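#structure-requests
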Amino acid sequence: MNIDISEYYTTEEWEKFKSAADKYETPFLLVNTDIVERNYKDLQTFFPYAKTYYAVKANPDKEVLNKLNNLGSNFDIASIYELDKVLAIGVKPERLSYGNTIKKPNHIEYAYNKGVRLFATDSEMDLRNIAKTAPGSKIFCRILTEGAETADWPLSRKFGCQPDMSIDLLILAKKLGLVPYGVSFHVGSQQRDIGTWDSAIAKVKYIYDWMSSNEDVRLKMINMGGGLPAPYLSKTNDLQIYADEITRYLHDDFGDELPEVILEPGRSMVGNCGILVSEIVLISRKSRTALDRWVYLDVGKFNGLIETLEECIKYPLYCEKKGVCEESVIAGPTCDSQDVMYEYAQYSLPLSLAVGDRIYWLTTGAYTSSYCSVEFNGFPPLKTYHV
């Protein structure tokens, strides 16, 4: 089972993680913000024409936010609580986008009063709430896209609307005194099919042309959301290949003069900055003749590994024990039968594993600490330490 660490981290990075891990009691998340800085600079290099709005929900750790703020990143917030968090570290409201399409009217008003002027929407009710509580704000409408089949963590159905409805909403936005500013989409998190951006951008171009020709409204912005991958077990192309192809799609549809382009990286920005360190609590079999060995850890779906739901995200695992391996079911410590991370993926673990041995979950900087429960079964939230 043991993967090649060099595929994920430099020797120096791995030694930093290992040295820090020895200091703490499991489970915990280790974060290296130098990796966040490298990821941010790579994004700036490969998408020089785009503005980066970091998706705070991916990892709201204060050190991560401070690092990105100092680098000049903008931020995408999904709630007034994230808003307060980024304002508290000195981020100016003009560098924020309220990207959640599901929000209370008083939360919209709160954000507006704090200076936020850029809001996402995908429904008439939300749009009217924005017009009432955040007058004159810029609006971008989120559309539905394809890509659920090729994204490890699909984001379809709940968010977005059909392109024809987005046109209706942008027209209404103008009538309500708002600024119809742009269109957004999200092709699905950890999207492995780069071609999904092609069809999504084509839909945006259709909306741009329709609004210009029929409503004399020139939209100015494309928000391409997230979707860029982190390095898990499933293979993906390098970031530069994503960038080259997506840039080509943009120029194919919009020519040499691109509109304002926004990226909302989350997973790709912070995924590989973190390693979750866990410990084996129990090893058992369900019968005398059972072929499956169950390995129970002190961390599970409710302690930060919710994205193993339906085994969608397959994290690289590492342990120091060597030797003959056996396919194993990997489960968490709680008394909920859903707290099983991998049963069908069949990770191979060394037969020599024993209670107390550590399992390192690589590339777990995104959607772990921010997803963990407060105290299900009394287990505390996942602690974060820095290297």
